[in-house]
Amino acid sequence: MNITAILKLVPDLVEELEIDDKGTGLDMDWLRLIINEFDDHAVEEAILLKERSEAEVTVIAPDAEGVDDVLYTAAAKGAEKLIKLTGDFEDGVNNHALARAVAHVLQNIQTDLILTGVQAHNDLDGSLGPLLAEYLHIPYAGYVSSVELNNGNAVIKKEYPGGLIGEYEVQLQAVLGIQAAEEPPRYVAVSKVRMAMKSATIEELEVGELDLSGGPEISRMFQPEVAERATMISGDDEEIASQLVEIFKEIGVL
Amino acid sequence: MNQDIYTVVEHLQGQVSDISYSMLSAARALANFTGGNVIAVLLGHNVEGLTRNLAADHVLYIDDPKLAEFTTDAYLKALAQLIGEKQPRAVLFGNTSIGADLASVLSVRLALPLTYSCQSISENGQLTSQICGGKIMAETPLSDLTTLITIIPGGYKPEEGQTTVSPPVTRLESPSLDDLRVWLKQYFEPEAGDVDISKEPILISVGRGISNEDNIELAEELAEALGGVVCASRPVVDLGWLPTSRMVGKSGQKVKPKLYLTMGISGAPEHVEGIADSEMIIAINSDPTAPIFDFAKYGVEIDLFDLVDVLIEKVEEAKG
Amino acid sequence: MAVKQAEHAVDFSRTFYTSLFDVQDGERFKNCIQCASCSGVCPYGYLMTMPPGKMIAYLRAEIFDKVLSNDTVWMCISCYACTEICPQNIPVTPGLMTRAKEELLLAGNVPNELQDALMNSQRYGNPLGESPRKRALWSKGLEPEITIMSKEKRPVDVLWFVGDYASYHPRIQITTKAFAEILNAVGIDFGILGPEENSDGDSQRLAGERGLFEMLAEKNGQSFSKYQFNQIVTTDPHAYNAIKNEYPALGISYPVQHYTQFIYERLDDLKPLLKGNGHTRVTYHDPCYLGRVNDIYEEPRKLLQAIPGVELTEMAHNRSTSLCCGGGGGGMWLDGFQWEKAHTRTTEWRVRESLSVGADVLAVACPYEAPRFEDAAKTIQGASSLAVKDVVELLLEAMEDDAY
Question: Cβ–Cβ of C209/A186 closer than 8 Å?
Answer without folding.
Answer: no
